[in-house]
Amino acid sequence: MNMQEVQKHVLICNGKSCCKNGGEEVAEAIRDQIKKSGYTKFIHTTKTLCNGQCKNGAITILYPDGIWYKEMDEESGRKLIEEINEELPLEQKVLLYYEEQHFIEKKTE
Questions:
Q1: What b/e string do you get for 55-68 counting C-beta neighbours within 10 Å, with b at 16 or more?
Q2: What pLDDT is recorded for position 12?
């Protein structure tokens, strides 16, 4: 794959806990939405092993933005791709975001 045009990298946890919480289905939904949106040259996906946030699974991470998403499902995976160019895509599922050279936990309201 030519990575020179890639603008976003989506890491989708497929560790044991996340898979129990639908991680594989999230990966399929995200990849399907990327194809439907015509973003295959611009968004790369990687299925990972455990990312250490099992209690919040299924976890998805967006880079270079440094945003960690919690409790992902097929619907939120699709919505992430639809909103990927917004300032804080899929804000309701944000667990951590990167700011001022460290991760900050997003407080729920």
A1: ebbbbbbbeeeebb
A2: 97
